[in-house]
Specification:
By secondary structure, this protein is of the alpha+beta class. It folds into 2 domains: about 1-75, Glutaredoxin; about 85-200, Glutathione S-transferase Yfyf (Class Pi), Chain A, domain 2 (Up-down Bundle), CATH 1.20.1050.10. The chain is built from 10 helices and 4 strands, in the order E-H-E-H-E-E-H-H-H-H-H-H-H-H. It is globular.
Protein backbone atom coordinates (compact mmCIF):
# COMPACT_ATOMS: atom_id res chain seq x y z
CA UNK A 1 0.00 0.00 0.00
CA UNK A 2 0.95 3.63 -0.39
CA UNK A 3 -0.33 6.61 1.61
CA UNK A 4 -0.54 9.93 -0.23
CA UNK A 5 0.24 12.42 2.51
CA UNK A 6 0.49 16.18 2.89
CA UNK A 7 -0.04 19.12 5.16
CA UNK A 8 -3.52 19.73 6.53
CA UNK A 9 -5.86 18.31 9.16
CA UNK A 10 -7.28 15.59 6.90
CA UNK A 11 -3.96 13.79 6.32
CA UNK A 12 -3.03 14.44 9.94
CA UNK A 13 -6.10 12.67 11.31
CA UNK A 14 -5.35 9.56 9.24
CA UNK A 15 -1.72 9.63 10.38
CA UNK A 16 -2.86 9.88 13.99
CA UNK A 17 -5.31 7.02 13.49
CA UNK A 18 -2.54 4.86 12.02
CA UNK A 19 -0.11 5.66 14.81
CA UNK A 20 -2.77 4.89 17.44
CA UNK A 21 -3.18 1.47 15.83
CA UNK A 22 0.53 0.86 15.28
CA UNK A 23 0.19 0.80 11.48
CA UNK A 24 3.07 1.88 9.24
CA UNK A 25 2.43 2.47 5.52
CA UNK A 26 4.96 3.89 3.04
CA UNK A 27 4.03 7.48 2.26
CA UNK A 28 4.44 9.75 -0.72
CA UNK A 29 4.28 13.48 -0.06
CA UNK A 30 2.02 15.53 -2.34
CA UNK A 31 2.67 19.28 -2.45
CA UNK A 32 -0.65 20.74 -1.35
CA UNK A 33 0.69 24.29 -1.25
CA UNK A 34 1.57 24.27 -4.97
CA UNK A 35 -1.68 22.52 -5.91
CA UNK A 36 -0.05 19.25 -7.01
CA UNK A 37 -3.12 17.45 -5.67
CA UNK A 38 -5.33 19.25 -8.21
CA UNK A 39 -3.55 18.07 -11.36
CA UNK A 40 -2.08 14.92 -12.91
CA UNK A 41 -0.51 12.61 -12.02
CA UNK A 42 -2.29 12.78 -8.65
CA UNK A 43 -5.75 13.35 -10.13
CA UNK A 44 -5.24 10.30 -12.33
CA UNK A 45 -5.37 8.32 -9.11
CA UNK A 46 -7.82 10.47 -7.13
CA UNK A 47 -9.98 12.56 -9.49
CA UNK A 48 -11.50 14.43 -6.54
CA UNK A 49 -8.09 16.00 -6.00
CA UNK A 50 -8.30 15.73 -2.23
CA UNK A 51 -5.75 14.58 0.30
CA UNK A 52 -5.05 12.09 1.72
CA UNK A 53 -5.56 8.94 -0.32
CA UNK A 54 -4.61 5.33 0.20
CA UNK A 55 -3.50 3.18 -2.73
CA UNK A 56 -4.21 -0.48 -1.99
CA UNK A 57 -2.09 -3.40 -3.08
CA UNK A 58 -4.52 -4.15 -5.92
CA UNK A 59 -4.11 -0.62 -7.30
CA UNK A 60 -7.48 0.71 -6.09
CA UNK A 61 -7.19 4.21 -4.63
CA UNK A 62 -9.34 4.87 -1.58
CA UNK A 63 -10.03 8.49 -0.69
CA UNK A 64 -11.99 10.30 2.06
CA UNK A 65 -10.66 10.14 5.59
CA UNK A 66 -13.35 8.15 7.36
CA UNK A 67 -13.49 5.34 4.75
CA UNK A 68 -9.68 5.13 4.87
CA UNK A 69 -9.73 4.81 8.65
CA UNK A 70 -12.56 2.28 8.62
CA UNK A 71 -10.74 0.20 6.01
CA UNK A 72 -7.61 0.21 8.18
CA UNK A 73 -9.71 -0.77 11.19
CA UNK A 74 -11.21 -3.69 9.32
CA UNK A 75 -7.73 -4.86 8.34
CA UNK A 76 -6.23 -4.15 11.77
CA UNK A 77 -9.02 -4.47 14.36
CA UNK A 78 -6.88 -3.96 17.46
CA UNK A 79 -6.83 -1.67 19.24
CA UNK A 80 -10.40 -0.82 18.19
CA UNK A 81 -10.92 2.83 17.30
CA UNK A 82 -14.27 2.38 15.58
CA UNK A 83 -15.64 -0.44 17.69
CA UNK A 84 -15.84 -4.15 18.35
CA UNK A 85 -19.60 -4.59 18.33
CA UNK A 86 -22.31 -3.33 16.00
CA UNK A 87 -23.47 -0.99 18.75
CA UNK A 88 -19.99 0.47 19.36
CA UNK A 89 -19.40 0.95 15.65
CA UNK A 90 -22.75 2.68 15.20
CA UNK A 91 -22.04 5.01 18.14
CA UNK A 92 -18.63 5.96 16.78
CA UNK A 93 -20.04 6.61 13.31
CA UNK A 94 -22.87 8.70 14.75
CA UNK A 95 -20.50 10.94 16.68
CA UNK A 96 -17.98 11.17 13.86
CA UNK A 97 -20.73 12.36 11.53
CA UNK A 98 -21.97 14.89 14.08
CA UNK A 99 -18.44 16.22 14.52
CA UNK A 100 -18.04 16.59 10.75
CA UNK A 101 -21.40 18.29 10.17
CA UNK A 102 -21.43 20.58 13.19
CA UNK A 103 -17.76 21.46 13.60
CA UNK A 104 -15.05 20.33 11.21
CA UNK A 105 -16.94 21.03 7.99
CA UNK A 106 -17.79 24.67 8.74
CA UNK A 107 -14.40 25.20 10.44
CA UNK A 108 -12.58 24.07 7.29
CA UNK A 109 -14.64 26.15 4.89
CA UNK A 110 -14.37 29.13 7.23
CA UNK A 111 -10.62 28.89 6.78
CA UNK A 112 -10.74 28.24 3.04
CA UNK A 113 -12.98 31.25 2.44
CA UNK A 114 -10.93 33.64 4.63
CA UNK A 115 -7.30 33.03 5.68
CA UNK A 116 -6.89 30.34 3.03
CA UNK A 117 -8.69 32.23 0.26
CA UNK A 118 -5.56 33.01 -1.76
CA UNK A 119 -4.75 29.30 -1.91
CA UNK A 120 -8.23 27.97 -2.59
CA UNK A 121 -9.95 30.61 -4.77
CA UNK A 122 -8.64 29.06 -7.99
CA UNK A 123 -9.12 25.44 -6.85
CA UNK A 124 -12.76 25.41 -5.76
CA UNK A 125 -15.81 27.64 -5.49
CA UNK A 126 -15.20 29.91 -2.54
CA UNK A 127 -17.74 32.06 -0.71
CA UNK A 128 -15.78 34.75 1.16
CA UNK A 129 -18.93 36.43 2.44
CA UNK A 130 -19.87 33.20 4.24
CA UNK A 131 -16.57 32.79 6.11
CA UNK A 132 -17.58 34.53 9.33
CA UNK A 133 -20.88 32.65 9.54
CA UNK A 134 -19.16 29.32 8.93
CA UNK A 135 -16.67 30.01 11.69
CA UNK A 136 -19.58 30.92 13.96
CA UNK A 137 -21.33 27.66 13.09
CA UNK A 138 -18.21 25.71 14.07
CA UNK A 139 -18.07 27.51 17.41
CA UNK A 140 -21.77 26.86 18.00
CA UNK A 141 -21.13 23.20 17.27
CA UNK A 142 -18.33 23.13 19.83
CA UNK A 143 -20.59 24.77 22.41
CA UNK A 144 -23.23 22.12 21.71
CA UNK A 145 -20.60 19.39 22.08
CA UNK A 146 -19.40 20.91 25.34
CA UNK A 147 -22.70 19.99 26.98
CA UNK A 148 -22.56 16.48 25.53
CA UNK A 149 -19.07 15.94 27.00
CA UNK A 150 -20.16 16.57 30.58
CA UNK A 151 -18.99 13.68 32.73
CA UNK A 152 -17.30 11.93 29.81
CA UNK A 153 -13.62 11.27 29.17
CA UNK A 154 -13.99 10.93 25.41
CA UNK A 155 -16.70 11.67 22.88
CA UNK A 156 -17.92 8.05 23.09
CA UNK A 157 -17.77 8.02 26.88
CA UNK A 158 -14.86 5.81 27.96
CA UNK A 159 -13.77 4.75 24.45
CA UNK A 160 -11.14 6.78 22.59
CA UNK A 161 -12.36 6.57 18.99
CA UNK A 162 -12.15 7.89 15.48
CA UNK A 163 -14.52 10.69 16.51
CA UNK A 164 -11.90 12.02 18.95
CA UNK A 165 -9.16 11.76 16.33
CA UNK A 166 -11.18 13.67 13.74
CA UNK A 167 -12.15 16.46 16.12
CA UNK A 168 -8.66 16.83 17.58
CA UNK A 169 -6.94 17.12 14.20
CA UNK A 170 -9.27 19.92 13.16
CA UNK A 171 -9.46 21.83 16.44
CA UNK A 172 -5.67 21.76 16.72
CA UNK A 173 -5.52 23.10 13.16
CA UNK A 174 -8.17 25.71 14.00
CA UNK A 175 -6.06 27.14 16.79
CA UNK A 176 -3.45 28.14 14.21
CA UNK A 177 -5.86 29.73 11.73
CA UNK A 178 -7.74 32.16 13.97
CA UNK A 179 -10.37 29.72 15.17
CA UNK A 180 -9.29 29.03 18.75
CA UNK A 181 -11.31 27.06 21.26
CA UNK A 182 -13.68 29.13 23.39
CA UNK A 183 -12.47 29.27 26.99
CA UNK A 184 -16.10 29.07 28.12
CA UNK A 185 -16.35 25.50 26.80
CA UNK A 186 -14.62 23.91 29.77
CA UNK A 187 -15.47 20.33 28.85
CA UNK A 188 -14.13 20.73 25.32
CA UNK A 189 -10.95 22.33 26.63
CA UNK A 190 -10.40 19.50 29.13
CA UNK A 191 -11.05 16.94 26.39
CA UNK A 192 -8.60 18.70 24.06
CA UNK A 193 -5.87 18.66 26.70
CA UNK A 194 -6.42 14.95 27.33
CA UNK A 195 -5.99 14.19 23.64
CA UNK A 196 -2.98 16.51 23.37
CA UNK A 197 -1.21 14.46 26.04
CA UNK A 198 -1.44 11.28 24.00
CA UNK A 199 1.91 10.50 22.35
CA UNK A 200 0.18 10.22 18.98
CA UNK A 201 -0.86 13.86 19.07
CA UNK A 202 2.74 14.97 18.64
CA UNK A 203 4.03 12.07 16.59
CA UNK A 204 1.29 12.52 13.97
CA UNK A 205 2.35 16.09 13.17
CA UNK A 206 3.64 16.68 9.67
CA UNK A 207 7.40 17.44 9.54
CA UNK A 208 6.63 20.99 8.34
CA UNK A 209 4.41 21.53 11.36
CA UNK A 210 7.08 20.20 13.69
CA UNK A 211 9.44 22.74 12.17
CA UNK A 212 7.08 25.56 13.06
CA UNK A 213 4.52 25.53 10.26
CA UNK A 214 0.76 25.10 10.57
CA UNK A 215 -0.46 22.45 13.03
CA UNK A 216 -1.22 19.65 10.62
Amino acid sequence: MKFYDSLGPNPRLVRMFMVEKGITIPAEQVDLMSGANRRPPYTDKNPAGQLPALELDNGFVLAETVPICEYLEDKNPNPPLVGQTAEEKAETRMWTRRVELKITGPLTDGFRFAEGLAMFKDRMRTIPQAAADLKALAQEGLTWLDAQLAGKQWICANRFTLADVVLYAFTDFGKGVRQPLDAANKNVLAWFERVAKRPTAESSLHPVAKAGGMRA
